[in-house]
Amino acid sequence: MQIQNEALVLIADGRKLLFLRNKGDAAIPDLRVESHHEQDNPRDRDQSGDAPSRAFSSVVTARSATEETDFHQLKEDRFAVEAAEMLRKRVLADDFEQLIIAAPPGTLSELRKHYHKEVEQRLTGEVSEDLTNMPIPDIERVLTE
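and the corresponding C-alpha coordinates:
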Protein backbone atom coordinates (compact mmCIF):
# COMPACT_ATOMS: atom_id res chain seq x y z
CA MET A 1 0.00 0.00 0.00
CA GLN A 2 1.12 3.56 -0.58
CA ILE A 3 1.60 5.88 2.37
CA GLN A 4 1.23 9.46 1.22
CA ASN A 5 3.33 12.29 2.67
CA GLU A 6 1.89 13.46 6.01
CA ALA A 7 -0.34 10.36 6.29
CA LEU A 8 -1.10 9.27 9.83
CA VAL A 9 -0.34 5.67 10.79
CA LEU A 10 -1.77 4.07 13.92
CA ILE A 11 0.02 0.98 15.21
CA ALA A 12 -1.90 -0.55 18.11
CA ASP A 13 -2.59 -3.61 20.18
CA GLY A 14 -4.67 -3.93 23.31
CA ARG A 15 -2.25 -2.04 25.54
CA LYS A 16 0.12 0.02 23.39
CA LEU A 17 -0.31 2.40 20.50
CA LEU A 18 1.94 4.50 18.32
CA PHE A 19 0.95 7.41 16.13
CA LEU A 20 3.40 7.71 13.24
CA ARG A 21 3.54 10.39 10.55
CA ASN A 22 5.05 9.83 7.10
CA LYS A 23 7.64 12.51 6.47
CA GLY A 24 8.75 10.82 3.28
CA ASP A 25 6.72 10.23 0.16
CA ALA A 26 4.65 7.37 -1.20
CA ALA A 27 7.67 5.77 -2.89
CA ILE A 28 10.00 6.01 0.12
CA PRO A 29 8.11 6.38 3.39
CA ASP A 30 9.87 7.86 6.40
CA LEU A 31 7.66 7.14 9.41
CA ARG A 32 8.34 9.19 12.52
CA VAL A 33 6.82 8.70 15.96
CA GLU A 34 4.46 11.54 16.89
CA SER A 35 3.21 10.05 20.12
CA HIS A 36 2.80 6.80 21.95
CA HIS A 37 0.55 5.57 24.73
CA GLU A 38 0.81 2.48 26.85
CA GLN A 39 -1.41 1.14 29.59
CA ASP A 40 -0.64 -1.32 32.33
CA ASN A 41 -2.75 -4.43 31.79
CA PRO A 42 -1.76 -7.39 33.98
CA ARG A 43 -2.87 -10.91 33.14
CA ASP A 44 -6.50 -11.66 33.90
CA ARG A 45 -5.69 -13.89 36.86
CA ASP A 46 -3.81 -10.98 38.45
CA GLN A 47 -6.84 -8.68 38.03
CA SER A 48 -9.63 -10.97 39.19
CA GLY A 49 -10.02 -11.67 42.85
CA ASP A 50 -12.04 -14.85 43.00
CA ALA A 51 -11.97 -18.31 41.53
CA PRO A 52 -14.75 -19.10 39.08
CA SER A 53 -18.03 -19.90 40.74
CA ARG A 54 -19.85 -23.18 40.16
CA ALA A 55 -23.42 -23.75 39.10
CA PHE A 56 -25.14 -26.92 40.20
CA SER A 57 -28.17 -28.43 38.54
CA SER A 58 -30.70 -30.16 40.75
CA VAL A 59 -31.87 -32.33 37.85
CA VAL A 60 -28.55 -33.24 36.33
CA THR A 61 -25.59 -34.31 38.41
CA ALA A 62 -23.03 -32.55 36.18
CA ARG A 63 -21.40 -29.32 37.34
CA SER A 64 -20.28 -26.45 35.14
CA ALA A 65 -18.25 -23.33 35.81
CA THR A 66 -20.14 -20.14 35.14
CA GLU A 67 -18.46 -17.86 32.67
CA GLU A 68 -16.03 -15.53 34.37
CA THR A 69 -15.35 -11.97 33.28
CA ASP A 70 -12.02 -11.59 31.49
CA PHE A 71 -10.78 -8.32 33.00
CA HIS A 72 -7.65 -8.33 30.84
CA GLN A 73 -9.74 -8.48 27.66
CA LEU A 74 -12.14 -5.83 28.92
CA LYS A 75 -9.22 -3.49 29.54
CA GLU A 76 -7.84 -4.19 26.04
CA ASP A 77 -11.25 -3.45 24.52
CA ARG A 78 -11.52 -0.18 26.47
CA PHE A 79 -8.04 0.78 25.22
CA ALA A 80 -9.23 0.25 21.63
CA VAL A 81 -12.25 2.48 22.33
CA GLU A 82 -9.88 5.15 23.68
CA ALA A 83 -7.74 4.85 20.54
CA ALA A 84 -10.84 5.31 18.37
CA GLU A 85 -11.71 8.40 20.41
CA MET A 86 -8.19 9.81 19.83
CA LEU A 87 -8.67 9.26 16.10
CA ARG A 88 -12.07 11.01 16.23
CA LYS A 89 -10.57 14.06 17.91
CA ARG A 90 -7.69 14.18 15.45
CA VAL A 91 -9.89 13.82 12.38
CA LEU A 92 -12.29 16.52 13.59
CA ALA A 93 -9.28 18.80 14.11
CA ASP A 94 -8.38 18.03 10.46
CA ASP A 95 -5.07 16.51 11.58
CA PHE A 96 -4.81 14.02 8.71
CA GLU A 97 -6.10 13.30 5.22
CA GLN A 98 -4.96 9.69 5.01
CA LEU A 99 -5.01 7.10 7.79
CA ILE A 100 -3.54 3.61 7.92
CA ILE A 101 -4.13 1.32 10.88
CA ALA A 102 -2.24 -1.84 11.85
CA ALA A 103 -3.49 -3.91 14.76
CA PRO A 104 -4.03 -7.55 15.70
CA PRO A 105 -7.41 -8.93 14.54
CA GLY A 106 -9.18 -8.58 17.91
CA THR A 107 -8.03 -5.00 18.45
CA LEU A 108 -8.81 -4.07 14.86
CA SER A 109 -12.30 -5.51 15.23
CA GLU A 110 -12.92 -3.50 18.40
CA LEU A 111 -11.56 -0.31 16.76
CA ARG A 112 -13.89 -0.74 13.78
CA LYS A 113 -16.93 -0.75 16.06
CA HIS A 114 -16.04 2.76 17.20
CA TYR A 115 -14.77 4.53 14.05
CA HIS A 116 -16.24 7.98 13.53
CA LYS A 117 -17.66 8.44 10.01
CA GLU A 118 -14.87 10.93 9.16
CA VAL A 119 -12.24 8.42 10.32
CA GLU A 120 -13.83 5.80 8.04
CA GLN A 121 -13.73 8.20 5.09
CA ARG A 122 -10.03 8.92 5.53
CA LEU A 123 -9.01 5.34 6.29
CA THR A 124 -7.06 4.08 3.30
CA GLY A 125 -5.65 0.86 4.67
CA GLU A 126 -5.77 -1.66 7.46
CA VAL A 127 -3.28 -4.36 8.34
CA SER A 128 -4.52 -7.12 10.60
CA GLU A 129 -1.18 -7.79 12.29
CA ASP A 130 0.56 -6.82 15.53
CA LEU A 131 3.40 -4.45 14.65
CA THR A 132 3.73 -2.71 18.03
CA ASN A 133 7.07 -4.28 18.93
CA MET A 134 8.69 -3.91 15.52
CA PRO A 135 11.33 -1.31 14.69
CA ILE A 136 10.08 1.44 12.40
CA PRO A 137 12.00 0.26 9.28
CA ASP A 138 10.26 -3.11 9.60
CA ILE A 139 6.88 -1.39 10.03
CA GLU A 140 7.55 0.62 6.86
CA ARG A 141 8.42 -2.58 4.99
CA VAL A 142 5.28 -4.43 6.17
CA LEU A 143 2.98 -1.51 5.32
CA THR A 144 4.40 -1.00 1.83
CA GLU A 145 4.41 -4.66 0.78
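(Above: one complete record from the training split.) Helices lie at 44-47, 71-92, 105-112, 117-122, 136-144.
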